[in-house]
Amino acid sequence: MTFFDQVGSAYRPRNVAELAGQSFIRALRYFAPELDEGEREALYALRCSFVHDYSLVNVPTMGSARVRELRTHHFMLTAPSGDGSVVRLPSRYWNGDISHCRLSNATWVNLWALGDLAEKVFSRLADLRSNGNLAIALEGGLRELQRRYAMTIRPINFIEP
After folding, report:
1. Does residue 130 belong to any structural domain of this protein?
2. Which of 111, 119, 6, 8 is nearest to 56 (CA)?
3. Helices of type H across 32-156
4. What is the rounded CA–CA span in Å between residue 23 and residue 27?
5. How do 73-78 and 107-110 pair as beta strands?
6. Which domain holds residue 138?
7. Collapsing DSSP states into helix, strand and coil, what is residue 76?
8. What is the pLDDT of residues 74-130, one digit of tens each?
9. Is 101 helix (H, G, I), strand (E, B) or coil?
10. How confident is the model at residue 49 (pLDDT cuts 50, 70, 90)?
């Protein structure tokens, strides 16, 4: 999930206009076109439930009514399923009331398929980079990318000149 956040803040395809919104959603819109809006929003909701509450429930309090509806979920995490989909949305969305969590209104996320999706996104990034079609989306360009994400390990006795 952190990977998607970083990718969405740092990169975009060169031939695509910069999108607004959360970096996680941008990464999926740019580099995982096989996901529809509901699936992207559900994965973002799972990310939020982990980050903000380390739980499997997300009930947002901000955003438009549509955004809150798309991001209200109680999750079931699964192993590989027959169809290989990353997200299986319920036919009727959960209403956010914890006493109404049912298997029938759960959002199912296949963790193996989510890992496969991350690998596909990485592969797409690498392909775009090798073809010269990957742009750095950070305002400070390459310098900011290196400062934010490049890691250098120096000896403990290193003294900066």
Report:
1. yes
2. 111
3. 37-53, 65-70, 111-130, 141-149
4. 6
5. parallel
6. 2-149
7. strand
8. 999 987 767 789 999 999 889 999 999 999 999 999 999 999 999 999 999 999 999
9. coil
10. very high
Confidence (pTM): 0.89
Give how many domains the chain has, as a whole number: 1
In this prediction, what percent of the chain has a pLDDT beyond 90?
A: 76
Neighbours of 84 (CB within 10 A): 10
Asked if the structure places residue 160 within a domain, the reply is: no
The two structure tokens encoding residue 160: 């900066």
Q: Which two tokens stand for residue 145?
A: 């990318």
At what angle are helices 23-31 and 111-130 packed, to 10 degrees? Answer: 70
Structure-token pair, residue 111: 């963790």
Structure tokens belonging to residue 73: 């979920």
Residue 136 lies in a domain: yes
What is d(CA 96, CA 109) in angstroms, rounded to the nearest whole number?
Answer: 18
Neighbours of 161 (CB within 10 A): 2
Domain membership flag for residue 154: no
Asked if residue 98 lies in contact with residue 70, where contact means CB atoms within 8 angstroms, the answer is no
